[in-house]
Fold:
Amino acid sequence: LLMMKGLFYYSVISILTVGYGDIVAVIWPIRNATILVILLDCIYSLVFIARIVGSFSAQKNEQT
Structure:
């Protein structure tokens, strides 16, 4: 259970790009997984923001 809390903390800190440095990935597979998670989060954020902007744009076009 303690390890799962540490993994969750490390994931959130990495995704938010805060990077306190108190937990560091040491082996390469974990470093690569961290990079993958961060890249997927960037893509997810872009898609999420694009959907919000697209919905506002569609609503504005319907009003005019």
